[in-house]
Amino acid sequence: MSPVIEARGLVKRYGRFAAVDGIDLTVEKGEVFGLLGPNGSGKTTTILLLLGLTEPTAGSISVLGLDPLRQPLAVKRRVGYLPDQIGFYDHLTAWENLAFTARLAGLISKEAQGRIADALGRVRLTEVAHRRVATFSRGMRQRLGLAEVLVKQAEIAILDEPTSGLDPQSTQELLDLIRELAAEGVTFVLSSHQLAMMQTICGRVALFRRGRVGLVGRVEDLTANVLGGTFRIEVEIEKADLVKVLAGVPHVSGLTRLQDERWRVDAAADVRADIARRIIGAGGALHSITMSQTTLDEVYVRFFEGENHDVAA
Ligand SMILES: Nc1ncnc2c1ncn2[C@@H]1O[C@H](COP(=O)(O)OP(=O)(O)OP(=O)(O)O)[C@@H](O)[C@H]1O
């Protein structure tokens, strides 16, 4: 494991208000790491701290082994940042915008030409390379943002709401590109409220709550932590009392009646075979037994609903 981002005890205060209130974060090389949380929970402030765009009140940050505050230019050179509204020069073409990026990255012209052509090819913008960016759709702008990451060969890309406003196909294309680049070792930090998208792309996510990271981990692990069961099994039965049938079955953590004979079982393991055997053994009729994946959406809703229960570690 080689961490590319490490934050310890990070605090950012505005006056007496702590926008970031003691965050510890470790992101490994090649990870796709998600920042989630309600508006105002501190995600953007954390990103600004990582980029050296604002000064921490306390704590330490290391990005690619650099201190963003002391070495902001080195960090900017090696980290790509795509804010919600990516700022391109609209009156310039895609190619010209990337040429500008290349110049800032200190590339000589010949090397820049090759990289720009390759990057535009990878993000499928070759055909519109010489069109003004003002005419680009949001999906094209997002892809051009990733082309920038490619041109400067950024090792980390931080993307804010990368798929908001994109149609399903453009979303898919962007996510495929992110996956490809992550497989090549680029580390991604994504901040988004689109939970279903985050669940498909992020290896780990951090749930922010009032300036702190309440939970961090793989979605499956958060599920176990927040919902008490990783596996959700739906059972449709007849002529059996599921409450009695399941009494004492190992790994079962919850039972909810959804409709007359439809039940949901929460369990810490895949206990479908065991459940089926017991229902038949009790003389019941088993109409269906299916397992559904818990969504990040449910984890999120339950986590923030549970403010008073304080499920956070
Ligand atoms: N420059 C500032 N001065 C004062 N307060 C600020 C400043 N920047 C951010 N804040 C406050 O810090 C808190 C955290 O803001 P931040 O933008 O980090 O939240 P966020 O999680 O990114 O929210 P969103 O999901 O809306 O992007 C908010 O209450 C915000 O009002």
UniProtKB/TrEMBL annotation:
GO terms for molecular function: ATP binding; ATP hydrolysis activity. Keywords: ATP-binding, Nucleotide-binding, Transport. Residues 5-235 form the ABC transporter domain. It comes from the Bacteria. Pfam families: ABC_tran. InterPro entries: AAA+_ATPase, ABC_transporter-like_ATP-bd, P-loop_NTPase. SMART domains: AAA. The keyword Nucleotide-binding applies. Belongs to the ABC transporter superfamily. This is ABC transporter related protein. It comes from Mesorhizobium plurifarium.
